[in-house]
């Protein structure tokens, strides 16, 4: 079997099964594990999968920069943002992540809602600048231009001085085993700190993020209090999360 044929077989298997186990695949194809691992390494370098111990998982397409992510699942993000906004209660302190879905949350907050939004995203803060009844706390730090959010030690220190009722989390991957993951190490630290300071963490996840993985873990999947995703997501895509006791809301 040619290298190109093996790689296509690997990608087809990954789409079908949701994971690759190198040892099993090597036995199935009658090839050495070293050969399979080399193929996985090369496919990972192309961004076509995420390597993990013993094999690979689907790579999240949501690791693109902020501008490119705006084109992904546009209608779904609007629906998720609207549903998340409607669930914020008067008087709550809510941490709102950066990203394109978080902007939709900000845009859909009810006009008479009185609450406090804490965010490290200048884009989210600007969306809320004209909301009459929402107090906005903007976390500062070094601007991570890829995601247009503040990161670094100054941001971490400010986050740890806040106690929030709810954190709306945006990540590039949610996977039952790999957990909540994102594509940048510093951003993962910031998201972890935000989650640790909130009584509840709810992930906002369009379809391409479910059962996918990125290089840096934010937290185990069991840290979630819930997932809000798009209505069209098939039941099999969320059943592993629901078996872990994580409520999934389709909108």
UniProtKB/TrEMBL annotation:
<dbReference type="InterPro" id="IPR014036">
    <property type="entry name" value="DeoR-like_C"/>
</dbReference>
<keyword id="KW-0238">DNA-binding</keyword>
<dbReference type="GO" id="GO:0003700">
    <property type="term" value="F:DNA-binding transcription factor activity"/>
</dbReference>
<dbReference type="GO" id="GO:0003677">
    <property type="term" value="F:DNA binding"/>
</dbReference>
<dbReference type="InterPro" id="IPR036388">
    <property type="entry name" value="WH-like_DNA-bd_sf"/>
</dbReference>
<dbReference type="Pfam" id="PF00455">
    <property type="entry name" value="DeoRC"/>
</dbReference>
<protein>
    <submittedName>
        <fullName>DeoR/GlpR family transcriptional regulator of sugar metabolism</fullName>
    </submittedName>
</protein>
<keyword id="KW-0805">Transcription regulation</keyword>
<dbReference type="InterPro" id="IPR001034">
    <property type="entry name" value="DeoR_HTH"/>
</dbReference>
<keyword id="KW-0678">Repressor</keyword>
<dbReference type="InterPro" id="IPR018356">
    <property type="entry name" value="Tscrpt_reg_HTH_DeoR_CS"/>
</dbReference>
<dbReference type="InterPro" id="IPR050313">
    <property type="entry name" value="Carb_Metab_HTH_regulators"/>
</dbReference>
<feature type="domain" description="HTH deoR-type">
    <location>
        <begin position="3"/>
        <end position="58"/>
    </location>
</feature>
<dbReference type="InterPro" id="IPR037171">
    <property type="entry name" value="NagB/RpiA_transferase-like"/>
</dbReference>
<dbReference type="Pfam" id="PF08220">
    <property type="entry name" value="HTH_DeoR"/>
</dbReference>
<keyword id="KW-0804">Transcription</keyword>
<dbReference type="InterPro" id="IPR036390">
    <property type="entry name" value="WH_DNA-bd_sf"/>
</dbReference>
């Amino acid at each position: 079997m040619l290298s190109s044929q093996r790689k296509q077989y690997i990608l087809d298997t990954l789409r079908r099964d949701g994971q690759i186990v190198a040892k099993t695949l090597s036995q199935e194809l009658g090839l050495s594990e070293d050969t399979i691992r080399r193929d996985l390494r090369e496919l990972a370098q192309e961004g076509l999968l995420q390597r993990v111990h013993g094999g690979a998982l689907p790579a999240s397409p949501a690791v693109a920069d902020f501008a490119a992510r705006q084109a992904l699942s546009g209608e779904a993000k609007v629906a998720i943002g609207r549903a998340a906004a409607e669930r914020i209660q008067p008087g709550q302190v809510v941490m709102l992540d950066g990203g394109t879905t978080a902007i939709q949350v900000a845009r859909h907050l009810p006009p008479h809602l009185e609450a406090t939004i804490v965010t490290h995203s200048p884009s989210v803060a600007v969306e809320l600048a004209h909301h009459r009844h929402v107090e906005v706390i903007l976390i500062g730090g070094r601007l991570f231009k890829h995601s247009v959010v503040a990161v670094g030690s100054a941001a971490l220190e400010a986050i740890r001085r806040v106690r929030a009722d709810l954190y709306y989390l945006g990540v590039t991957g949610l996977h039952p085993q790999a957990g909540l993951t994102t594509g940048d190490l510093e951003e993962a630290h910031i998201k972890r700190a935000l989650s640790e300071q909130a009584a509840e963490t709810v992930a906002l996840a369009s379809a391409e993020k479910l059962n996918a993985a990125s290089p840096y873990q934010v937290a185990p999947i069991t840290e979630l209090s819930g997932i809000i995703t798009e209505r069209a997501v098939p039941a099999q895509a969320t059943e592993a999360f629901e078996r872990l006791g994580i409520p999934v809301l389709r909108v």
